Amino acid sequence: MKSWLVLALLVLGYVAYLLLGALVVSTIEAPYEENLRQELRQLKQMFLHNSPCVNGSRLEALLEKVINANKFGVSVLNNASNESSWDLASSLFFSSTLLTTVGYGYTTPLTDSGKAFCIFYALVGVPFTMLVLSAAVQRLMSTFTYQPIHYFQLHRGFDRKKVTIVHFVILTLAVLIFFLVVPSAIFSSIESSWSFLDAFYFCFISLCTIGLGDYVPGEQDNQWLRQLYKVSVAFYLLLGLMAMLLILQTFHKAADLHGLTDLFYLPHLHDQEDQEPILETSDSTLSEREPKRPLTTGTQPSYSSINR
């Protein structure tokens, strides 16, 4: 009964959070949208008034064609970039956003054969990408999570729960600096139309795999080293996703130790995940931890077996 009550409260809290987000976004964005709509209507009426030879319905048809083409990354402006959206570098960037499920939606397949290929390509590629990222994160957990916590708890005598909190905060700050703040500064210097906030927004939305598509790097006119830039962004996305998964895995481990998984009836991360040999530990230390279990040659300290 208690588990259902906790679940009900959790669902109600989530629904309330959704409604709060909807209310805030609607309050902020709706007035700007209405002002923009009125401005466009005035510009259109002014153009038709100054150009009596132009038919209104034909203008509507032209604008619809232009807007639809722009959705696929094709522009009719004279100063628009003539770079193809499907050169090798751009295609690699598209593949990375497809397989990582970032999916900006700025460049999309135009043909039926391209759409069909994307379905089968993603059907295999998305699980494959998750497998590669998960395997990489497990190795990173050994270096950046298990080893530091074992060291400070076993050799420095710090309390395990305090160590996990401090470690999680430090790791989060490191990821924030090296995968959000520093890349934001780089993007804002390369993309002339982006402010630092725009670049930070792009990095955060991308690494959370939200991918709204309102900001896409490498699409400005006369982009310097555009192909190299596109490839670099693709690798940044992969590394950034590893960093975000590392944070989530570390948080899950900390939640295990502090009882949050029991509170919300979430599954624990099992000890089998952290059996990688991390630290040489004396037999006396191991015997103190597990007095009733005989030690074997391959016994290694696990994250969840450290003394409280």
UniProtKB/TrEMBL annotation:
Disordered, as annotated region: 277-308
A Pfam family this chain is assigned to: Ion_trans_2
Domain of life: Eukaryota
Coiled-coil stretches: none
Catalyzed chemical reaction(s): Na(+)(in) = Na(+)(out); L-glutamate(out) = L-glutamate(in); chloride(in) = chloride(out); K(+)(in) = K(+)(out)
Keyword Metal-binding: yes
Domain Potassium channel span(s) in chain numbering: 74-141, 176-253
Subcellular compartments: Apical cell membrane; Cell membrane; Cell projection, Dendrite; Cytoplasmic vesicle
Biased composition (Polar residues): 296-308
Transmembrane regions listed in the UniProt entry: 118-137, 165-187, 199-216, 228-248
BP terms from Gene Ontology: stabilization of membrane potential
GO CC, one annotated term: lysosomal membrane
Main location: membrane
Glycosylation: residue positions: 79
InterPro entries named among the record's database cross-references: 2pore_dom_K_chnl (IPR003280), 2pore_dom_K_chnl_TASK (IPR003092), 2pore_dom_K_chnl_TWIK (IPR005408), 2pore_dom_K_chnl_TWIK1 (IPR001779), K_chnl_dom (IPR013099)
Membrane topology: Multi-pass membrane protein
GO molecular-function term, one example from the UniProt record: outward rectifier potassium channel activity
Quaternary structure (record): Homodimer; disulfide-linked. Heterodimer with KCNK2; disulfide-linked. In astrocytes, forms mostly heterodimeric potassium channels with KCNK2, with only a minor proportion of functional channels containing homodimeric KCNK1. Interacts with KCNK3 and KCNK9, forming functional heterodimeric channels. Interacts with GNG4. Identified in a complex with PSD and ARF6; interacts only with PSD that is bound to ARF6. Interacts with UBE2I.
Protein family membership: Belongs to the two pore domain potassium channel (TC 1.A.1.8) family.
Identification of the protein by name: Potassium channel subfamily K member
